[in-house]
């Protein structure tokens, strides 16, 4: 009798929307879900810092090919900015580098500072970030004592709202709700708000509430997923996140072989292509008068 371990049936391809716990890295979540889902083909869209909680979109099997496109969608956050202290990481995990009493900063000044950081802005990422500088992650250089200079980048903060202001001694805690483009650092918004007000600032709490169409009501904790691994099928995931295009059987055969279709003016981003039976065939984008395949999921 063979003692070889029976080969485990791979899980269906799709997305798992996780409510990431505090203290876990995004890689920790991926490692845990590899065991829960029973496959090595697991990845995540858009890193969350260990301090942060909330929505982390994880792809399983073929859905890992969606992640790079999902990572570019708009994101939503709830956070708390502490005015009166700066840190070397721009969040509560770093060391305090400067303390300036913030008690004299008015609510109106805070709201004006927030308004100035709303819209399309140029943002310098935190020194402790995953951005590569000369082939090495910025956080590795910063943690070795090197002064890292990162270039400002354009980002879009479509909404930046103050939801509460709490005062205690020389410190002011500002609760905020933010909607922003991919690549926006809420830590940097905290730093820049404090700098503009002349008292310094850093992020003390962050919860991601949304990645594109995937929000907290759809998310499951690690404990819940250990009991039941809920995987959103790829067809549903793509239909929720991108414009949909339904094609004929003949067009489906063209798409399955990576061929092009006439453009329909559905936009410059990814488009989900579905066959006559409703099955997901591919992600494409329109280039001029035709489409170009981004990922083909059949064949």
TrEMBL record:
Residues 187-230 form the tRNA pseudouridylate synthase B C-terminal domain. It is an enzyme of class 5 (isomerase). Pfam families: TruB_C, TruB_C_2, TruB_N. The keyword Heme does not apply. Its EC number is 5.4.99.25. Residues 35-186 form the Pseudouridine synthase II N-terminal domain. It comes from the Bacteria. The active site is at 49 (nucleophile). Responsible for synthesis of pseudouridine from uracil-55 in the psi GC loop of transfer RNAs. This is tRNA pseudouridine synthase B. It comes from Planomonospora corallina. The lineage of its organism: Bacteria, Bacillati, Actinomycetota, Actinomycetes, Streptosporangiales. The gene is truB.
């Amino acid at each position: 009798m063979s003692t070889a371990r029976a080969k485990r049936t791979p899980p269906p391809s799709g997305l798992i929307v996780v409510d990431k716990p505090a203290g876990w890295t995004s890689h920790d979540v991926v490692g845990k879900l590899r065991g829960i889902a029973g496959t090595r083909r697991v990845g995540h869209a858009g890193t969350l810092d260990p301090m942060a909680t909330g929505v982390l979109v994880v792809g399983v099997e073929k859905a890992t090919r969606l992640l790079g496109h999902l990572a570019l969608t708009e994101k939503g956050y709830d956070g708390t900015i502490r005015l009166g202290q700066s840190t070397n990481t721009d969040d509560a995990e770093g060391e305090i580098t400067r303390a300036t009493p913030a008690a004299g900063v008015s609510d109106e000044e805070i709201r004006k500072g927030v308004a100035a950081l709303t819209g399309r802005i140029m943002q310098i990422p935190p020194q402790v970030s995953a951005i590569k500088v000369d082939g090495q992650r910025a956080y590795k250089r910063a943690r070795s004592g090197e002064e890292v200079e990162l270039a400002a980048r354009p980002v879009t903060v479509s909404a930046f709202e103050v939801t509460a202001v709490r005062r205690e001694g020389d410190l002011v805690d500002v609760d905020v709700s933010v909607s922003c483009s991919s690549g926006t650092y809420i830590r940097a918004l905290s730093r820049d708000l404090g700098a503009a007000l002349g008292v310094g600032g850093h992020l003390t709490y962050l919860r991601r509430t949304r990645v594109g169409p995937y929000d907290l009501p759809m998310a499951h904790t690690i404990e819940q997923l250990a009991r039941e691994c809920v995987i959103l099928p790829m067809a549903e995931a793509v239909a929720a996140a991108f414009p949909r295009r339904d094609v004929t059987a003949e067009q489906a055969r063209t798409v399955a072989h990576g061929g092009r279709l006439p453009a329909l003016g559905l936009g410059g981003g990814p488009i989900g292509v579905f066959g006559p039976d409703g099955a997901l065939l591919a992600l494409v984008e329109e280039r001029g008068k035709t489409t170009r395949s981004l990922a083909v999921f059949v064949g």
